[in-house]
Design brief:
By secondary structure, the protein is of the alpha+beta class. 15% of the residues lie in helices and 40% in strands. It has a 5-stranded antiparallel beta sheet with strand order 4-3-2-1-5, with no helix packed on it. The protein starts with a helix and ends with a strand.
């Protein structure tokens, strides 16, 4: 049986926000968070070379969405 602390720390790492968007890859499943609320979720389609722009294919069928780091959104892997 694993120690409770080890399990909790792994969960925290998994749900931590991504500060360097450039580390994300196409196909990564993420949530977009603004003011502590999930505003979108889906798969990363592309990230700009600067790591400041992300295109997301939403989980719900609709058009791709564009998110800018300068808009104050955060990203976390799901």
């Amino acid at each position: 049986m694993k120690a409770r602390g080890a399990v909790l720390s792994r969960r925290n790492v998994h749900s931590a926000t991504i500060s360097e968007w450039g580390t994300l890859k196409a196909g990564d499943r993420v949530e977009i968070i603004k003011h502590a609320h999930v505003i979108a979720a889906g798969e990363v389609e592309e990230v700009s070379q600067s790591g400041n722009v992300l295109w997301l294919v939403p989980a719900n069928p609709s058009e791709k969405e564009l998110f800018l780091k300068s808009d104050g959104v955060e990203i976390r892997r799901t």
